[in-house]
Write a structure and sequence with these properties.
Elements (H helix, E strand, L loop, with lengths): L21 H11 L7 E7 L5 H12 L4 H5 L4 E3 L3 E2 L8 H10 L2 H5 L8 H16 L3 H25 L1 E7 L10 H5 L12 H10 L1 H4 L3 E8 L4 H14 L2 E6 L5 H17 L12 H11 L3 H12 L18 H19 L7 H9 L8 H8 L7 H4 L5 H14 L5 E10 L5 E9 L1 H11 L11 H13 L5 H53 L15 H28 L1 H18 L3 H15 L15 H5 L4 H23 L3 H16 L4 H7 L2 H16 L4 H22 L6 E5 L2 E4 L7 H21 L3 H15 L5 H17 L4 H16 L2 H17 L3 H17 L3 H4 L1
Parallel strand pairs: 1-5, 1-6, 2-4, 3-4, 4-5
Antiparallel strand pairs: 7-8, 9-10
Helix pairs in contact: 6-7, 9-11, 14-15, 15-20, 17-19, 22-23, 23-24, 23-25, 24-25, 24-27, 25-27, 27-28, 27-30, 28-30, 30-31, 30-32, 31-32, 32-33, 32-34, 33-34, 34-35, 34-36, 35-36, 36-37
Length: 883
């Protein structure tokens, strides 16, 4: 070999030039450079690993300042950066719109005129402030609508001068959302899902003449997994006269395989490396590469690396070995080649940094940052994040970043949506996060655990793959695969534990900082009020320095991101348990904070994880519970159904928390009618289980109690009391004890059940709702008992937001009875809310504390608390509180 040594994983290098996609590019060019300003939609779809994202990147380059199409258009065309829907946050319209705007910033920084969004930037900044301040739903909705209106105003001005091309990748990620099935069975109307990106996109296409003039949308995704999404977009375009181009991305022909390799050879020669790809360009080898890779670029990169690895040439690729004509035999040999790829590329004993990074990335589809990799790879003692703090090595992190940059040149590596970190000035900064091409995760999972396919198929692609695996894996080989699986499971559990703890530690750290800012505010307020009188209290201001405000915003955003990450790895370690703990805990906290956007993101993330057929193989599921066996299911099937059941309950909550009580009631009643029509007896029985039905009814009563008066309140109270008693019986019995018999089916106790904690939380919620009604009916003794019951069932369950609410309400009730321990109780609630960092709820605690002091005849303290409450309510524009 002459000149320099070949690049790392030379066969898997990514050609800088696009291999013959002339037909696709020609069709896209017509949509990007049309003769008019009408909206165009391009559907770019194909199987995994065929280069769809690479094609999008080429379009971005062609439309960038100085690019070929940009020049042809006289600078009157511009593409966004890639908007990757792998980022779960982008599944809500507000985050998606913001990402679209941000994706045009690089062009604005490059000096392209009229690319600023002044109205939107101001409006969305106010919206984000309100989100992070946890204002009420109505105020938040108003701010979101103003931000979207401002976006379209600014966007319309931008499009007067140029065509804007939206580059949207991995749209299959929004094809199957957690709420979509409710649309399909008629439980939800599309209007309810207007905050979901998929629904929002369809609505904009219906309004394309007013909003999407001079715009081309290129929507890219997998053929089978994104089928429903693509069909819906096609239908909307047909119904509304939107010009649509449907482009398939096909496998390479043999000639294109040769072109791909020649581009790599030319690239290597430009870098001073000679004769690297000669063996691969032999006609007999080319033919084999084409047949065995099926012309799939990712597989071509992986098999090509086998040829250049320096080890013995795989038998199937030897020129003397005939290529089988029989498709089944061809598939068997392709399988063997993939086996060698996995053994070569992901060798656990390999000590090179890049090899170790690849092995970490294949276990973390969401991607990893340099700091996370440093913690995982350079922490052989598995130190906790607290122990690791102070041991970070900046030079090592730079070394990892350099290795990540080198890996970006590989065809098998794919950049993930950026993570975020906070710099020394307290400003959020984007941080690169790497993952792998989706096809690599498939190959790895199939060759480590092909015998561990769990649950029922989730879609057509899953069914097809299961059929293929059944013909490729023999019973004799299962012992070998089981050993591989157990080793891989052990490594993943270690890694997921560390990543869960890493995220959890960061959440605690940022919450501690936020709490410190809050305590500082409280002390400053108290000092200022000490030097004023009640008559001048309204002139006191709740001031915060610009730097503190910037840090608080950054900390809050980091907490939102990291809580999702912490929940992800908790679920991957134990989905059966953590669905009922980490997920529901995060959901309740976000609900009380009126943060519906984060609530939806969590729900969509859980749905994605439970339907990821590769990740779910690497879960230690444990023995099947008796009730799961009786239904002839896997635990994963049960969890997926429970996710649907919880989704219905969540929608009752969501509508009620929006203040749309009548709609929440109608939805709940419609859901019960639908459940009665479920034909499969086992499934219907699961939906009608005392716990599942009881949880729905508790939230139905919640929706009913606010508009209710008099006799109806009494009826709701009795209904809640009945549900509480039944749920308490389930909570008080072991899993061996039969508690109820419904329709001939036995329902056992929940002690030791994965959902035990969630059941206790539901009982606490129900007791708190009943307590509130009791006080409204003047039955204070019942109210006090029920609030205490709510607190009793909250022990060791988390739910700090709910606990704060119960303490707050109980303290007011006790103050009415003249009990002085009401003060301590209310202060405990206030302290919890300071930790949770929600302005409106902090204001409510100060307001309650003012009432408590007033009831206890301490007016000198009462007016100070009232003044604090007014300041917090003013900050979040809560007129009812200010009044």
């Amino acid at each position: 070999m002459e000149g320099k040594q070949p690049a790392y994983l030379a066969g898997a290098q990514r050609p800088q030039r696009l291999v013959n996609r002339a037909r696709q590019l020609g069709a896209i060019q017509e949509a990007v450079l049309p003769p008019d300003t009408a909206c165009r939609v391009v559907l770019l779809r194909g199987g995994g690993g065929l280069g769809k994202t690479r094609l999008l990147e080429e379009v971005q380059t062609l439309c960038s300042p100085g690019g070929k199409w940009w020049k042809e258009a006289g600078g009157r065309v511009l593409a966004t950066e890639l908007v990757d829907l792998m980022d779960i946050r982008l599944h809500t319209k507000n985050a998606f719109v913001h990402r679209l705007r941000e994706s045009l910033r690089p062009a604005a920084r490059a000096g392209i005129s009229a690319l600023n969004f002044p109205n939107y930037d101001a409006a969305v900044s106010e919206y984000h402030r309100r989100v992070l301040d946890n204002v009420g739903y109505a105020l938040l909705k108003d701010a979101a609508e103003r931000a979207e209106t401002a976006f379209w105003e600014d966007y319309g001005r931008v499009c007067e001068e140029r065509r804007v091309v939206w580059l949207v990748d991995t749209v299959e990620q929004i094809a199957q959302s957690a709420s979509r099935w409710m649309l399909e069975v008629g439980l939800l109307e599309e209007e309810y899902l207007s905050t979901h990106t998929a629904v929002w996109l369809r609505e904009q296409l219906r309004r394309h003449k007013e909003r999407l003039q001079n715009t081309t949308l290129i929507l890219t995704g997998r053929l089978l997994e994104g089928k429903d999404f693509f069909e819906e977009i096609q239908r909307v375009c047909e119904e509304n006269g939107v010009l649509l181009v449907d482009i398939g991305v096909e496998h390479f022909t043999e000639g294109e395989v040769e072109q791909y390799l020649r581009y790599l050879q030319e690239q290597a020669e430009e870098e001073g490396v000679k004769k690297v790809y000669g063996a691969m360009l032999q006609p007999s080898v080319l033919e084999r590469l084409h047949r065995y890779t099926e012309g799939q670029p990712v597989r071509l990169a992986l098999f090509g690396d086998l040829l250049l690895s320096g080890r013995a040439l795989p038998r199937a690729l030897r020129p003397t070995e005939p290529v089988p004509e029989d498709e089944q035999e061809l598939a068997a040999r392709r399988w063997k080649l993939e086996e060698e790829v996995v053994a070569s590329l992901f060798r656990p004993e390999e000590d090179s940094l890049r090899q170790r990074i690849l092995l970490a990335l294949v276990r973390a589809p969401a991607g990893l940052t340099a700091r996370q990799l440093h913690y995982l790879l350079d922490n052989p003692a598995d130190l906790s994040p607290q122990e690791w703090e102070g041991k970070e090595d900046a030079r090592r992190i730079d070394e990892i970043k350099a290795a990540m940059d080198a890996l970006c040149k590989l065809a098998i590596v794919k950049k993930r949506p950026d993570a975020r970190e906070i710099d020394r000035e307290g400003t959020l900064q984007p941080v690169s996060r790497l993952g792998l091409q989706d096809e690599v995760y498939r190959i790895f999972a199939n060759h480590i655990a092909p015998h561990r396919v769990v649950g029922k198929p989730v879609d057509e692609a899953d069914e097809k793959e299961r059929e293929e695996l059944s013909t490729l894996v023999t019973d004799k080989e299962k012992e070998k695969y089981e050993r591989r699986y157990q080793n891989e499971l052990k490594e993943r559990q270690r890694m997921y534990r560390l990543l869960r703890d890493w995220a959890g530690y960061q959440v605690q750290r940022f919450r501690k900082e936020l709490y410190g800012i809050r305590v500082g505010e409280e002390r400053a307020l108290s000092r200022e009020l000490d030097h004023t009188s009640p008559a001048f209290a309204r002139h006191v201001r709740l001031e915060i320095s610009e730097s503190a405000a910037r840090r608080r915003t950054a900390y809050r955003q980091m907490v939102r991101d990291l809580e999702l990450e912490q929940m992800t790895y908790a679920l991957l370690l134990d989905p059966d348990h953590q669905f009922n703990v980490a997920y529901t805990d995060l959901g309740e906290n976000r609900m009380y904070a009126n943060d519906e956007e984060a609530d939806i993101a969590a729900q969509e993330l859980v749905w994605r994880l439970l339907h990821d057929r590769y990740l779910m193989r690497f879960v230690e599921w444990g023995p099947l519970r008796q009730e799961v066996k009786e239904r002839k299911e896997h635990t994963l099937d049960t969890l997926r159904r429970v996710a649907r059941q919880e989704g219905v309950t969540r929608w009752i909550k969501r509508l009620a928390m929006r203040g749309r009580y009548r709609e929440a009631i109608d939805f709940a009643e419609k859901a019960e009618a639908w459940i009665q029509r479920i034909s499969e007896e086992n499934v219907r029985a699961s939906w009608l289980h005392t716990f599942a039905r009881g949880e729905r009814r508790v939230w139905l009563y919640f929706a009913r109690m606010f508009p209710a008066t008099g006799e109806e309140l009494e009826e709701i109270f009795n209904g809640l009391d009945k549900e509480i008693n039944k749920l308490k019986q389930l909570a008080g019995a072991t899993r061996e004890e039969v508690v109820f018999r419904n329709n001939g089916r036995e329902e056992r106790g929940f002690q030791g059940h994965p959902a035990e904690l969630r059941l206790r939380r539901v009982i606490s919620m129900a007791a708190a709702f009943a307590a509130y009604i009791a006080t409204q009916l003047g039955r204070d003794r019942d109210g006090e008992q029920l609030y205490n019951l709510a607190l009793a069932y909250l022990r060791e369950t988390g739910m700090r937001a709910h606990r704060a609410l119960v303490l707050n309400n109980l303290s007011r009730l006790l103050a009415d009875q003249g009990k002085r321990d009401a003060v301590v109780m209310c202060q405990d609630a206030l302290n919890l809310r300071l930790q949770l960092d929600a302005d409106q709820n902090i204001g409510l605690s100060h307001s309650t504390l003012a009432l408590v002091y007033n009831r206890l005849h301490q007016p000198e303290k009462a007016w100070r608390e009232a003044a604090k409450a007014r300041l917090y309510f003013s900050r979040v524009d809560y007129p009812r509180g200010v009044g």
